[in-house]
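Comment thread on ticket #2218

A.B. wrote:
> Attaching the input chain for the structure job we discussed in standup.
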Amino acid sequence: MGAAIVVLLLAFAFRVRNLGAESAWMDEAYSIALAGFPLDKIIQGTAADQHPPLYYLLLHLWMLPGSGVFFARFLSLLIGIINIAQVMALGRRLGGSAIGGGVGLLLAISPFHVWYSQEARMYILLATFTTAATTELWLCLQGRKRWLLYTLFCLFSLYTQYFALFIFIAHGLLVVLQAARSRRLMFLGQWTKAMLAVALGFGVWLPVALNQMRFHMMPWIGRPDIGSIRDALLALFWGNEAMGVPTGIRWLAFAGLGIMILWGVFKLYRRRPANWSGFELIAFWALIPFFLIVLTSLYYPIFQTKQFLLLVGAFVLLFTFIVQLLPRPAGVLLLFVSLLFAGASVLLQQSILHKDDWRGAAQYIQQGYGPGDVVYSNPAASALALSLYAPSQFVYDGYPPDYSILSGGWKNGQTITPQIADTAMQLQVRQHTRIWLVESYPQLWDPSGALESWLSVHAFLAADKQFTNVRVRLYQLRPESPQP
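C.D. wrote:
> Ran it. Output below, let me know if you need it in another format.
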């Protein structure tokens, strides 16, 4: 118990370090802004977005006594610590104290786990609920009657993020295998009842979910290639900083992990030790959802590295299980090297600002903002990030003009055209003398640069500054430009 507390304290230290150093990026700003509404409005706003509502409802309750980016992220920090405690407990249950301690250390300094434990988004909550569901399933398969808890954690997972479905499929395949092997079909029947209960509990939200999947496609997410699959797997162990390593070394690491996993599965299958069924659980939990996400991404745009966070505990458990198969000197050395690289990676990750610098952009505008100015955001949702750091007297507008956090605004998914830019800017110059154009990833919203083209003709560029992926330009209206 004492060792577990030390590991959790170490995890806390890494996660509280620089918790507020990064600016909140657009999605975090969305989380914080939406959580500030009453519960019924949160559900309305979530329905207009692309995720289920549970995280936002939890964040709302969390922020009743506090506010700000640091406080919002602290909820994720605590959930991340709970997740590490879960995986450690499951590791001890499946493979003994060595497995529990090893996986705890690896997760405590995992750059990937640290990153999402410091972000005001739902991904670490999903990892925690799916870990709880997997643990309860294991106990059920060992004869413990905990199907109600399993059902609840599955339902909570699905109301947190839809990727929980990939975990359910892995669970189902494992249950089928266990039922066939033991000839105890009651496992399959009980799991089927649990899934029917989850479907019933989710039924009220299902029409909304189907509508979200239909109208909230992400066309900027391309199909995965072998390089992106390689990097996603490496990120689970060593974070996005590993992407800075030369490609050849990444290929060697990827090949090494793949060979190690295949070797471990084969060796354990031949030996069939007492904890073989526990290893089987971990292998199903890690590998099946990973491949299902990749395969789905070939037909529907969902492949993003962050979506694999729900598997980080499973993969680290898998790694730790296989490491113990090696001769002790080699196993200890591999674990030490992995810990060393992860520690260096997380320290590097926290020493460099990666997220879009909305704090810097807001402060920059504040220094030069004057009467008659307007902050025009492209996309309009980025005003949520600016408003976290900018004074409330800023006048905001943006594209799409009807954007609202409670109703969305991308119903038609139309990007800016020269005609749209002309209409939007004509309206602005009738009401304002200077325009602060704030753009984030304009290639997604204004691929032809129509706003910039219009303003370059009708206004002088008075200032231009970049804040990571946020560009701020101040335009002064030309005397000959259209006037009311």
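A.B. wrote:
> Thanks. Noting for the ticket: The mean pLDDT is 91.
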